[in-house]
Recover the amino acids of this structure.
């Protein structure tokens, strides 16, 4: 294995967040990937329990996607997307509009989840202005929400570390999060308690006035902060309150989109349709950095069909609708459709849930949450070192051939949707062993 700390050729890469600090002490290099497995640079197979970073939903090394990208790059490698276009972007948007939750059939392409979030927030504000609601500029997020790292995203996000040293947009406010292990620990499905937390939006309306609020954004299932599930009825209630006050509802489906919950989108799973929906990750099976914002047609039309001097959406990216990304996305959608992956979590979800819940008796486990093919396993924190137990499990699992993700003292699992029962059994067995070894 390369010795990163002594190899001056490997000092230049500034890794995201503060990964270098840990990486220098214990480098973990991935060299190859195929199907459900990574291979580390010392040749070990590592079962991918996290679909990369919640994105490789169709599994690794899909030849169909790489061939589509190669073919596209040979034919048309790049095309400006301002005032002109290319066939693949129109085709991809059209295909997406057909699997979108009802009515969300206008698609704006971005380069990442963070860009999708900032795009959706800007669309919300521009739309409010276009319909004569120009005082509505306030954005509402939720505690423990993660919406990427743009200034809009960290403003509505609710992870303190992401905001500690940065100024955020003015006027934002936050709903409380819905994580309540005291009342809901080990719920086999959605938590029973907590729908009333949606009334926080009423409280915020009473405080600031509805006429100041443009939109509220939530992850239907909060992913990065540890798989926090919405209590039964919570999202419906949020939808009702937002409607009552003319506030746009945005679902951040960067993680939940493209089959994670056993339905194409969380909006389908919960039967609640937002006004705007942000996606990325599974959009291209993680192989190309790309995101997409799905918008209600009326929102698009208000910004696109007004008179010449009307408010328009002055916003876009050099890489919006990139030809290679669209080719990757189209091939990805083909695979999802042919292999039934967007609903695979509906059939395999019970097996996944029951397997995960066998860990209830394992040491340190204080809650288990699953939905579709995602799981969060919460450990009791070590009093002297929060997060230490989960990190220990992560290192132990990786060394023994399983990739998990940890956030604080929560283990998050989200395997590629091609996962088989045998993989699930392996994940659970390895985790059980790892938990039993933790101090
Ligand atoms: N929103 C959510 C819900 C996410 O989980 C993430 C990434 N984990 C983002 C936004 C940001 O996406 P990206 O890292 O592609 O900018």
């Amino acid at each position: 294995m390369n010795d990163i700390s002594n190899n001056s050729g490997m000092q230049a890469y500034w890794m995201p967040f503060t990964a270098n600090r840990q990486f220098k002490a214990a480098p973990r290099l991935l060299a190859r990937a195929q199907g459900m497995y990574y291979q580390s640079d010392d040749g070990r197979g590592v079962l991918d329990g996290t679909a990369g970073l919640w994105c490789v939903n169709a599994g690794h090394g899909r030849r169909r996607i790489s061939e589509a990208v190669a073919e596209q790059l040979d034919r048309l490698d790049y095309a400006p997307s301002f005032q002109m276009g290319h066939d693949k972007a129109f085709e991809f948007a059209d295909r997406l509009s057909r699997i979108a939750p009802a009515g969300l059939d206008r698609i704006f392409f971005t380069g990442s989840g963070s860009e999708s979030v900032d795009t959706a927030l800007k669309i919300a504000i521009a739309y409010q202005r276009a319909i004569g609601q120009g005082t509505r500029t306030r954005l509402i997020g939720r505690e423990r929400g993660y919406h990427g790292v743009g200034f809009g995203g960290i403003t509505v996000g609710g992870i303190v570390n992401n905001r500690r040293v940065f100024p955020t947009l003015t006027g934002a406010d936050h709903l409380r999060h819905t994580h309540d292990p005291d009342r809901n620990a080990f719920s086999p499905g959605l938590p029973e308690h907590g729908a009333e937390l949606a009334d926080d939006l009423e409280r915020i309306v009473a405080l600031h006035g509805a006429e100041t609020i443009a939109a509220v954004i939530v992850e239907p299932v909060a992913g990065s902060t540890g798989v926090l599930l919405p209590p039964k009825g919570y999202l419906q209630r949020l939808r009702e309150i937002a409607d009552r006050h003319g506030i746009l509802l945005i679902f951040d489906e960067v993680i939940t989109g493209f089959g994670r919950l056993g339905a194409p989108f969380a909006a389908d799973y919960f039967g609640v349709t937002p006004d705007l929906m942000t996606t990325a990750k599974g959009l291209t099976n993680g192989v190309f950095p790309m995101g997409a914002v799905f918008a209600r047609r009326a929102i698009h039309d208000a910004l696109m069909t007004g008179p010449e001097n009307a408010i328009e959406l002055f916003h876009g990216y050099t890489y919006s609708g990139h030809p290679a990304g669209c080719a990757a996305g189209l091939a990805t959608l083909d695979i999802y459709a042919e292999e039934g992956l967007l609903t695979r979590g509906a059939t395999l979800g019970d097996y996944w849930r029951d397997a995960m819940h066998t860990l209830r008796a394992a040491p340190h486990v204080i809650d288990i949450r699953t939905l579709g093919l995602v799981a969060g396993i919460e450990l009791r924190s070590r009093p002297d070192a929060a997060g230490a137990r989960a990190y220990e499990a992560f290192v132990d699992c990786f060394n023994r051939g399983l990739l998990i993700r940890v956030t604080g003292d929560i283990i998050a699992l989200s395997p590629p949707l091609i996962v088989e029962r045998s993989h699930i059994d392996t994940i659970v067995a390895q985790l059980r062993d790892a938990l039993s070894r933790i101090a």
